[in-house]
Design a protein that fits this description.
By secondary structure, the protein is mainly α. The protein folds into two domains: about 55 residues; about 70 residues, Arc Repressor Mutant, subunit A, CATH 1.10.10. About 65% of the residues lie in helices and about 0% in strands. The radius of gyration is 25 Å and the shape is elongated. About 5% of the residues have low confidence.
Length: about 160
């Protein structure tokens, strides 16, 4: 009597364990090769320091590769560090630095006026260009996303504080 063998799909060991709910060998290998969280933090610390000292965010063509070269790491580690530590994408990280810088510029301009009237004559477009944004629309959108108000509302709120 001949026993019929059932034809089965040839699953790899990886797929077999994945079907059983276990982490695959490749996931374990990937986790082992990733950097410890302390190294992610040190990369971000260095990145923040370089961004502030050299004001790299003012370059509206700054890329992840450019920043990685300045920090002394590769773009993958820098991107992963930003995602892990800051919980942001590279663009969000870059734009948050630009928004902080624009807030600083607005505060400096307002602190120079004693009357509570903005005599600087700077518009949202001027602040956008001065802080590294390529368009006013993107500047206003990012500012509102981060601060909850538009740059004009922020400036007006500071002006009201000066008047009081």
């Amino acid at each position: 009597m001949k026993i019929k063998q059932r034809k089965t799909k040839n699953y790899s060991v990886k797929a077999f364990w994945a079907l059983l709910g276990y982490r695959s060998y490749f996931q374990k290998e990937k986790e082992a090769s990733s950097l410890p969280s302390k190294q992610y933090s040190s990369i971000i610390k260095k990145s923040d320091q370089i961004m502030l000292e050299k004001k790299l965010f003012l370059n509206n063509n700054l890329s992840l590769t450019d920043l990685a070269k300045e920090v002394g790491t590769n773009r993958t580690y820098l991107s992963t560090s930003i995602k892990t530590v800051k919980k942001q994408s590279f663009c969000e990280y870059l734009n948050s630095n630009r928004v902080e810088y624009s807030k600083k510029i607005i505060k400096e301009k307002i602190s120079k006026c004693d009357t509570g009237i903005d005599s600087s004559g700077m518009t949202a477009e001027d602040y956008a260009i001065a802080s590294g944004f390529s368009t006013t629309r993107n500047f206003v959108r990012c500012f509102k996303k981060k601060e909850g108000i538009t740059p004009t509302q922020y400036k007006n709120a500071l002006l009201w504080k000066v008047r009081e």
